[in-house]
Every structure is written in C-alpha cells, then in structure tokens.
Design brief:
The complex is a heterodimer of chains A (97) and B (268). Chain A has 97 residues and is of the alpha+beta class. Chain A has one domain: Ribosomal Protein S5, domain 2. In chain A, strands 1-4-5-3-2 form a five-stranded mixed sheet, with helices on one face. In chain A, helix 1 links the parallel strand 4 and strand 5. In chain A, helix 1 packs parallel to helix 2. Chain B is an alpha/beta fold. Chain B contains nine helices and seven strands; from the N terminus they run αβββαβαβαβαααβαα. A seven-stranded mixed sheet of chain B has the order 1-2-3-4-5-6-7, with helices on both faces. The longest helix of chain B is centred in the middle third of the chain and has 19 residues. The mean pLDDT of chain B is 92. Classes of the chains: A alpha+beta (97), B alpha/beta (268). At the A-B interface, strand 3 and strand 5 of A face loops of B.
C-alpha cells in the first residue's frame, strides 16, 4: 500500500532553480523541488509507510515556518525518519537557492 | 594496489557516478528526474517509484571525446531494471550506434549496479534486456562498449549477460558478477550449495577479484574514481572494433526429435 499525502503552506520567498536530491532507498527519500509562481508551497508525499500523516505535517510545518519558500515539492519516501526528511528538505532548498 | 585517500566510486549514487566518469563540467542528463518518466507498474503493487526509475543517462565527454554514461542506482530496488530504465539503456546504446553512423562516434560506458530484472515488471524487464544485448552487439562492432562494475551490488541476472557482451569489463574488488544471487541459490539448491550469509564465500565465488582471475573481467581496479577513470580512458585509447559474434551452433532440434522417437522404437 502506498499513501499519498498533500499539504499546502503560505510562502513569501522565491527560489532560483529546481533541485533533485535523495534516493528511494530503505530509510531514505527522494525530493523534487521546483519554484512555484504563486505565494504558496504545495507538497505531495508518496510513502510506503502508512499512517504517519501527522508526523509528516509536523516536519513540513517546521520547515516552512523557517523557510517560507514558494515551491512545488514532490517526495517519494521509502521509510525515511523525520530527521532524514528534514535534512533532505534542507539539502534540496540549499541546492535551489 | 593500495590507494590512500581514495575517492570512492561505490559510495556515490548513480548520478554522481556518471558525473565522476565524464570530464569535469561536461555532464548533461537525458530524461532526468524532472521528466518524471518513472515506472507506472510499481505504485499499483504497493512500491514507491523513483522519478528516474533508478537509471541515469548522461551525455558529456571522456578524454575530450563525445561520450555517454549509463548508470543504474543499486540503492533503488536493488538497481533492478524495468521497462523505463531498460528502455533508457537500450535507447542510449542505439543512439550511440547511430552517432557512429553519422560520423560522430560516442564513447559508451555502462556503469551498472543491479540485481537484474525487476521482478515487479518481469517480462518487460526481460524484453528490455534483450534489446540492451542486441544494441551492445551492434555497437561493439564499431566502438568499444565499456562496462564499469564497481558498485555495492555488482551485476546479476539478465544484466550480467549484457555485461558479458561488452568489449571491456572493468570490475572493482568489492563488486560482484553473477547470474543467480546467493539468496536464490540457497533457496533453490540448499545451504550446502551456498550459504547466503557467508560473505567471504560469496566474494570468493562471484567477487571482482575472482571474476578477473577467471577471465570474466578485463581489468580489476581499486574503488577509486581516478583509477576507474583512467581504466575507462585506456579502454577507449585502444579502439579495436571486435568482430561479429558468432552465433552458437545449436543442434538441429529435428535430429534430436528423430533420435528420441527412435529410442522409443518409433520410426520418424
């Protein structure tokens, strides 16, 4: 079973370019980040580990509170821990700035 | 050969391996992750797909000559080859052959790290491997086709067959080349045949050093980017197009049938 989760956050900053980081491997995830035109960030998570919607929300909420970037993010997850997801998000943003 | 402060090839992902093999700054990916050409078959089977299907195709230069590197990522589903990844590899090989015919030869490197055909895409993977083998045989008539087997998985299954068709096979000590993996052998033939938890045994049988000793690999290299790069350049420096592969002489099945019938006392 795959669970698909979608989130949206307000955003005020732009990014320079798209970025691709990570890998769909055990305990890891792949992130595709693209600049979005409007003032909001949208995230789609596809994960093989179901039932962790609130955890995803907590990680993403914290990330976008610190970095209100207008981006479209796609995450393909293979059981990454919240810490790994947070680091991957930071890495993607760093490559996109 | 001992290399101090080696820059590991095996520790890199597929994209970084392709980048490492191409001349600095020349890497340009074809059908990259943002094309989102991922497997349409995995999600329906409960497996999360990857945006590049685990296969990276990159153009660039090697030794300032046009080149193409294909790299598979052993971390995503064991580097397995499905319809998309397989078609990317076969397509790259076919384009390289067409490049040669148009007068702009392309140096082709297959940096494979794969357990073989992806079970979730069974027949499509098998078809892809057939296309890859076909394309390697066509290309190696005119250009060297160089395999670099230096990842954590190595190369198994159908892609091991494809690898064997390459004109140069560069292998690292940590990589493996085999048809059935140790788990499959243990399951099918029992613990006496192969203990899949015995890592030294696995490397004694299918490890890079053994495969080189047996003549299945042309060159053994340390897990070091510079060493692998120079082995690849050497392979292209000596471009000796290989003769056409001879078709194996299969016995005529009709003769076998007739012999079988005679054994049963029936005159065919």
């Amino acid at each position: 079973m795959i669970e698909t989760l979608t989130y949206e956050y307000p955003a005020s900053q732009g990014v320079q370019q798209r970025a691709h980081v990570g890998v769909v491997a055990s305990g890891n995830c792949e992130i595709l980040l693209e600049p979005a035109a409007d003032g909001s960030a949208s995230i789609v998570v596809r994960t093989s580990v179901t039932g962790f919607g609130t955890t995803w929300q907590a990680v993403l909420k914290r990330f976008f509170a610190r970095n209100p970037v207008a981006v479209r993010i796609e995450i393909n997850d293979f059981g990454a821990t919240p810490a790994v997801v947070a680091l991957r998000l930071e890495q993607a943003l760093e490559s996109a700035l | 050969m001992t290399v101090l402060l080696a820059e590991s090839f095996a520790e890199r992902g597929a994209r970084e391996r392709a980048r490492a093999l191409l001349d600095a700054g020349s890497f340009r990916e074809l059908i990259g992750p943002f094309e989102r050409l991922s497997s349409p078959y995995l999600a329906t089977q409960g497996v999360v797909p990857q945006s590049d299907d685990g296969t990276v195709v990159a153009r660039g230069t090697i030794g300032a000559q046009r080149a193409c590197v294909v790299a598979t990522d052993g971390r995503f589903l064991g580097g397995s080859i499905g319809e998309i990844g397989g078609s990317k590899i076969a397509g790259a090989l076919e384009l390289a052959r067409r490049d040669f015919e148009r007068g702009s030869p392309t140096r082709m490197v297959l940096a494979l790290d794969t357990g073989g055909i992806r079970l979730q895409e069974a027949n499509l993977g098998i078809l892809a491997v057939a296309e890859i083998c076909d394309a390697i045989v066509a290309l190696r008539l005119v250009m060297p086709v160089v395999a670099v087997i230096a990842g954590r998985v190595g190369v198994y299954g159908g892609l091991a067959l494809s690898t064997s068709l390459c004109s140069t096979i560069i292998v690292s000590e940590g990589a493996r080349i085999g048809l059935n993996g140790p788990d499959v052998i243990e399951t099918e033939s029992g613990l006496d045949e192969m203990d899949s938890s015995d890592r030294p045994l696995i490397w004694r049988v299918t490890g890079g050093r053994m495969r080189h000793e047996q003549g299945f690999a042309s060159e053994i290299v340390p897990d070091d980017v510079a060493a692998i790069r120079s082995a690849v350049e050497r392979a292209f420096a000596d471009p000796h197009p290989l003769p056409a592969l001879e078709a194996p002489a299969f016995p005529d099945p009709r003769l076998e049938r007739d012999a079988f019938l005679r054994a049963l006392g029936i005159e065919p």
